[in-house]
Design brief:
- The complex is a heterodimer.
- Chain A is mainly α.
- Chain A has one domain (12-282).
- Chain A is built from 11 helices and no strands.
- In chain A, helix 2 runs antiparallel to helix 3 (73-89).
- The longest helix of chain A has 30 residues, at 152-181.
- Residues 1-6 of chain A have low confidence and may be disordered.
- Chain B has 13 helices and 14 strands.
- The model of chain B is unreliable at 1-8 and 322-345 (pLDDT under 50).
- Chain B is of the alpha/beta class.
- Chain B has helices spanning 50-57, 79-83, 101-111, 116-129, 145-157, 175-190, 202-208, 226-233, 248-254, 280-293, 308-316, 325-328, 333-344, and strands at residues 12-21, 24-34, 39-43, 65-70, 73-74, 86-90, 163-167, 194-199, 211-216, 219-224, 236-242, 264-266, 271-277, 298-304.
- In chain B, 37% of the residues lie in helices and 25% in strands.
- In chain B, the strands form 3 sheets. In chain B, strands 6-7-8-3-9-10 form a 6-stranded mixed sheet, with helices on both faces. Chain B has a 4-stranded antiparallel sheet with strand order 2-1-4-5.
- The radius of gyration of chain B is 23 Å and the shape is globular.
- The A-B interface holds A 2-3, 5-8, 11, 19, 22-23, 26-27, 29-30, 33-34, 37-38, 103-105, 107-114, 118, 284-285 and B 55, 58-61, 78, 80-81, 83-86, 88, 91-99, 103, 107-108, 110-114, 139, 155, 159-162.
Chain lengths: 285, 345
């Protein structure tokens, strides 16, 4: 006879959670093995952030004004680049899912008695691990062009965690897009047309004050602005606190305010996109 | 057997199973009863609804109407429990080509919730059995088509499912790999597994299945043993391929009266097909004699058992319209081979 799992009514919540976790880890391990088997993909993914660092650091640097007093552009830029990089990196979640769907792997997974969340949990967590590697490498690149953490190791670690959390949130958004579009090329196009404006209409790369006046309120409310500002303060200290005239109910001109807003956005988006994407996975045809 | 009460029904049961994709009716009310421990063949061309049915039985797709049960579990209500009891391989499932053979099977074993040690032991055992032991530590992308398909079937067996769904398991395989896979499937039946197999090849259904359902446009249009189906269609077919297509009219005229029914003539391809009932050799000799007398040249002449196309022509009045019809027949090796080589080379 079959294994003990097949008792339908008796499956308790605890064992469900345990299996959801275990199944997610099995899928994560498989995804990580995949990355280790084709490391060129990782290397290619590193090219883009390096290009951004070099372009902004050396081409745009002299033209960027409105910097917070006491900050050079490279210091201003790099925490934004880390944030941007984590967000861009999340597109691989959608692409990986679309590829698995195309190849029929998702069908196999869906025919197995595994947790319905596992494929998505495995994908977002393996992308989280991949993002950690990328963030560390890009920090290394930052150091080569003149960036330095200035707020102690706790601040540095906190910034890395924040950036990873942002990447994780976007992985779930990316998963939702991937499940909706299902095709690798379409997913790539959709993610980039969506992500470019979200990242560029924010303080990630340039200060909001230099933008046209009607776009400023949008940029100020963009969660990417909050995360980038928060990453900046964590990495550099209070010298990086934004000076924008803010309209938020909790002021974003203090570290506490930035952390609170960052957390609200991260949790809020997860609360929406985790269940939505799992539901979409369940209902795949 | 079952603690929930004795069920008279078979291992796979469907009643009025329906599925629509938009305005397309993929399944138009299918009834099915597959006895435990037997092989059931789903025979039909691409788009007939075979894969849709398999996807419903394996809980990948929700039916729009009717109901289906596998090992007594409802595919909708008891989907979760059912998944632990079935295996799926073929067109509808895949292996991860970046993982090794062993890693693939182990992963599937873990996802069937086998303990890690057992998943490993079973993976080794099953790879050995399917002749993949030596390739176990190689990435699946280095495997040949046949090896990949074997790995795929192996993965579906890791947790010893009661019922196995094989969706076109041999489509695209070379003859040798197909034979290997057939042998594997026969072994599984001997172990008492129930297998539902979809195929485009009558020959395959004939070789493996205890019973066959012919599916077309979402409905089962005939069901029975392979022999019963062949009897329905009316036996052997004589096929002639004329050397000079311009002479096809003359050839057809020369052969009037040969065989047991009206010939079908494909002037463009230069082919004539004549139903020959059970007197194939007589019709063949008769044709050769007549054409030789009239000095009409042939490219090829062969007698063959009914193909899927014949089944379809006979049951539905339209052709199955699928690429591999050549391979489904027998006795025409040369042409089939030539065509096959074009793909490889």
């Amino acid at each position: 006879m079959s294994t003990a799992v097949s008792t339908p009514a008796g499956v308790q919540v605890a064992s469900r959670i345990r299996y959801a976790f275990a199944d997610g880890m099995v899928v994560m391990r498989r995804n990580l093995l995949q990355i280790s088997r084709i490391p060129t993909v990782l290397i290619l993914e590193l090219v883009q952030p390096i290009m951004f660092v070099l372009l902004f650091r050396f081409v745009f640097a002299g033209n960027i004004t409105n910097l917070p007093p006491g900050l050079t552009y490279v210091l201003y830029l790099m925490p934004g680049i880390f944030t941007q990089n984590a967000i861009f990196g999340s597109t691989t979640t959608a692409i990986g899912l679309a590829e698995d769907m195309k190849k029929g792997l998702v069908d196999r997974f869906r025919s197995l008695p595994m947790a319905r969340s596992a494929v998505l949990v495995g994908r977002t967590t393996s992308d989280l691990a991949k993002n950690l590697i990328l963030v560390l490498l890009v920090i290394g690149v930052g150091y080569l062009v003149g960036f330095k953490f200035q707020n102690g190791p706790v601040g540095a670690v906190a910034m890395i965690l924040l950036v990873l959390a942002v990447g994780f949130v976007f992985s779930w958004i990316s998963a939702t897009v991937g499940l909706a579009i299902k095709e690798v090329e379409g997913v790539q196009a959709a993610m980039f047309t969506g992500i470019f404006p979200i990242v560029f209409i924010s303080s990630a790369l340039v200060p909001v004050q230099g933008m046209v006046s009607w776009i400023q309120p949008i940029a100020e409310r963009n969660p990417v602005t909050i995360w980038a500002n928060c990453a900046r303060v964590l990495a550099l200290g209070n010298v990086a606190l934004p000076t924008d005239r803010t309209t938020h109910t909790i002021p974003t001109t203090s570290l506490e305010g930035l952390l609170a807003w960052s957390a609200i956005w991260i949790l809020g988006l997860l609360i929406v996109f985790v269940p939505v994407s799992i539901r979409m996975y369940r209902r795949l045809t | 057997m079952s603690p929930y009460g004795v069920r008279m029904a078979g291992a796979i049961v469907a009643e009025g199973l329906r599925k629509n994709f938009g305005t397309v009716e993929a399944l138009r009310g299918i009834d099915l009863d597959v006895a435990s421990g037997t092989v059931f063949g789903f025979l039909g061309p691409n788009g007939a609804g075979k894969t849709t049915a398999v996807r419903i039985f394996t809980t990948l797709l929700l039916p729009d109407g009717g109901r289906a049960e596998v090992v007594g579990l409802d595919v909708v209500r008891d989907a979760e429990a059912l998944r632990a009891r079935i295996g799926l391989a073929g067109q509808s499932a895949a292996v991860d080509e970046n993982l090794t053979g062993l890693e693939n099977i182990q992963m599937v074993g873990r996802l069937y919730h086998l303990p890690a040690a057992e998943a490993r032991r079973r993976a080794g055992e099953i790879l050995e059995r399917f002749g993949l032991a030596e390739a176990a530590d190689r990435q699946a992308k280095t495997y040949s088509g046949g090896m990949r398909r074997r790995l795929d079937v192996a993965a579906s067996l890791v947790a010893r499912p009661d019922v196995l769904f094989l969706d076109e398991p041999t489509t695209g395989l070379d003859p040798r790999s197909r034979m290997d896979l057939w042998a594997m499937i026969r072994e599984l039946v001997q172990e008492g597994k129930t297998i539902l197999l979809t195929t485009q090849y009558l020959e395959e259904a004939d070789n493996l299945a205890d019973r066959v359902a012919v599916v077309d446009l979402g409905s089962i249009i005939a069901e029975g043993t392979a022999d019963e189906l062949k009897d329905q269609i009316g036996g052997e077919v004589l096929e002639l391929h004329v050397k000079d297509p311009a002479q096809i009219g003359q050839v057809a005229q020369a052969l009037s009266g040969v065989g047991t029914g009206e010939p079908s003539i494909d002037a463009e391809a230069g082919k004539i097909r004549i139903p020959a009932g059970s007197d194939g050799p007589v019709a063949l000799l008769d044709s050769v004699r007549r054409l030789d007398d009239m000095k009409l040249a042939l490219e090829d002449i062969a007698l063959h058992r009914p193909t899927l196309d014949d089944v379809f022509l006979s049951l539905t009045g339209h052709a199955a319209e699928q690429d591999q019809q050549e391979e489904a027949g027998s006795g025409r090796r040369t042409r089939g081979r030539r065509r096959g080589r074009g793909r490889d080379g």
